[in-house]
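Minutes, project huddle
Topic: does the predicted pose make sense with S-adenosylmethionine bound?
PN asked that the exact inputs be recorded in the minutes so nobody has to dig through chat later. Recorded below.
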Amino acid sequence: MTMPQPDPQALAHSAVLAGRIAEAIEAAGGWLPFDAWMARALYEPGLGYYAGGAHPFGAGGDFVTAPELSPAFAECIAAQVAEWFAHCDPVVVEFGAGTGTLAAGVLAALRRLGRPAHRYAIVELSGTLRAQQRETLARQVPEALGTVEWLDALPASIDGVVLGNEVLDAMPVRVFEHTGDGTLDELGVALDDAGVIRWAARPADPGLRAALAESLRAAARTDPDASSDAAGHEAAPWPLLGPGRYRSELGLQAAAWVATVGRALRRGAMLLVDYGFPAREYYHPQRDGGTLIAHRRHHAHGDVLRWPGLQDVTAHVDFSAIARSAAGEGLELLGYTSQARFLMNCGLLERLAETTRGGAVDPGSIRTLSAVQTLLSEAEMGELFKAIAFGRGLPPMPLGFVRGDRSGSL
Ligand SMILES: C[S@@+](CC[C@H](N)C(=O)[O-])C[C@H]1O[C@@H](n2cnc3c(N)ncnc32)[C@H](O)[C@@H]1O
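Predicted holo structure (tokens), as shared on screen:
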């Protein structure tokens, strides 16, 4: 199956965005770090992928997320949220709510569980998505619409439960490249002689070098003393990347975001679901091409600079860095496990048995089974996607992490 070409109108839209980015490159002296490119490609007002009226979600879009696959995903999240509501205000703050399907499912399931949310705040950057979310909620949970509000920015103080499904992977990343001879570069973008935006390298700055060293030490779990020389100088841990050319990413914005939200969380929990691994797997010498990927019309490919604004661009999440960032704000790590394990701990299989009780094999139950298979299968979302939870003032061992917790791997 080949990837369909964008139509002329879409290409014209992308060209306008590329022109804006080209101006920014020139204004910055000829080079922009990749995270600046990614921020514009995804979020430039009116033009970026998530801000330009594209329809990324679902079968007719570019990718399908877990809440869109099956209502069972939201029901499992709600089971976890309901448990936390016994210990904090019954308030949810969801970041990047997509079409609003997760919000609608969680609101409805919390009501069924007898623990309705008193307030459901959505922090959404895109005006188009806000409109879509309102429409989904009005259609699916009209009785709960009055509890929903949209925020432009993070609330200063949160008592309740923070949710983010596939939000961290959409945050701009820095890209580095290590060459076997010990050179560490940062990759960004520049204009070629024809004015086309191309990859371009610069020597890595001290901030990037320090952040990478911290991540690699987490990956190697080196005793800090072991990586200092006799004079106490830190040895650069680049050899951990292996002897050849190595390119990967640093999710510094995602880590900073977790710190900011963590600081605002006075009492309650933060539950994040996304694809990624602990540092040791993220920076494994064999993963030498990194994790950056573009999605368009259900095709995944590595040409991320192509068609800015018309395709999603993401990187996997380094969950060790996310956990460090939350710990830095005094949050407790409540659990880290695979999506499959989290959903099963929250009762997914019992829910499935109820849906298919009676053994009737109708098209609806076949669709349900196939969606659950995608959520759980190791070959699809079950293992690559992880759930991680942090808390302040909550009891340990929440429902979703009672079996199969992998916090020790971070
Ligand atoms: C891949 S989509 C996931 C949407 C939805 N959660 C779902 O599961 O279908 C990523 C979303 O995260 C949003 N996002 C990224 N950074 C954000 C931030 N700092 N605050 C709020 N939303 C953000 C994007 O605008 C986008 O809507």
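Observations noted during the meeting:
- The CA atoms of residues 29 and 86 lie 54 Å apart.
- The mean pLDDT is 92.
No decisions taken; revisit at the next huddle.
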